[in-house]
């Protein structure tokens, strides 16, 4: 399918490739302009010693992984905390020790559940790096608030039937030949045209979100296009100095279909980038605790962010109003995420990789052996991807079910959007709301 057939998984690589946060920089928020609307009641935002310790530990861990261990992944994907400072580490054992201490102190001092949630997830990830994942159920619950149960075959068959029916409306069969037809018909070959569609869609989806919530008139969000012969398609970066930047790589090695351009704009820009830009604004105004600006993809708030990003279009409109190529692209992507999620969990419990691949290909002929195999093996091997990638399908389905249940109740839907974009809700609370 269009998204899945791309050499890189746009969605999964988004934050994975979100490098370049400033770690040791003594930030100042004095140059951040005032907003024209008051977005909320100012809280007492004095950063406690424990919160400051969390910020310093995470930055120190980032430096350890990037400069000393050259691990190839980030600990801090966004750094929106204004306080300077960073601890110094020589080993992951030291980091794990400090995170354990922080966790115990946060519990003893009855610190906010959000801080405890973040420290718990970081502690679980540090442990996984040191010892491997010994208890998958506990690991996914601690990092992404995800249960390890398979998504039921009833759900899989529903999504499969829906893909088949939507493709039939376009005159395309849901089989290998149909995949080639689909790509022939919908791939946009001209880079300028790709950029023009994405930009138009970015404006459309952002506007749609802004109309539904009392949003900032302006946030510092910059969208730029590059053409680099590299596997990533979207990079998001953010800090208090530069604001949030979404970099979209339209190099010819990537195939963009029309629907994928729209999907990318709704998910990456109106979903993630807008959310982080709003968070940056609130932190710089002192309306949100600064430690919430330390964003890591193994933390559960990212699971919520992915669920939101995947469902932005459903918050905004009835699915039947979507342009057909977008609608089918989106549904294919959803089926793909569900199948690979199940295949990964099956592989974790000892199922042969070939059987896991067959499980996916027999349910979506728009997937390829290489794509499924690579995704499952990566998740098996990498504690980071094992955690991060496990959040997509379950959290998307939770959001989707909630939106379906709230159909016609725009107030509830808009209230949830407000909380997700403008507050920093406890992940457990969001899960309770959605369940
Ligand atoms: Zn995403």
Keywords:
single chain; 435 residues; mainly alpha; 3-stranded mixed sheet; two-stranded antiparallel ribbon; 59% helix; disordered N terminus; binds zinc ion
Descriptive overview:
- The chain has 435 residues and is mostly helical.
- It has a domain at 49-144.
- Helices cover 59% and strands 6% of the residues.
- The chain contains 18 helices and seven strands.
- A three-stranded mixed sheet has the order 3-5-4. The chain has a two-stranded antiparallel ribbon with strand order 1-7. A two-stranded antiparallel sheet has the order 2-6.
- A hairpin with a 3-residue loop joins strand 4 (234-239) and strand 5 (243-249).
- The longest helix has 27 residues, at 258-284.
- The two termini are 30 Å apart.
- Zinc ion binds at residues 11, 14, 267, 272, 306, 309.
- Zinc ion is lined by residues 11, 14, 267, 272, 306, 309.
What is the element layout, followed by pairings?
Layout: H1 2-5, H2 10-16, H3 49-68, E1 78-79, H4 92-108, H5 113-131, H6 136-144, H7 153-169, H8 176-186, E2 187-188, H9 191-212, E3 221-226, E4 234-239, E5 243-249, E6 256-257, H10 258-284, E7 294-295, H11 300-316, H12 324-348, H13 353-361, H14 369-381, H15 383-388, H16 392-405, H17 410-422, H18 427-434
Parallel strand pairs: 3-5
Antiparallel strand pairs: 1-7, 2-6, 4-5
Bound molecules: zinc ion.
Zinc ion (ZN) is lined by residues 11, 14, 267, 272, 306, 309.
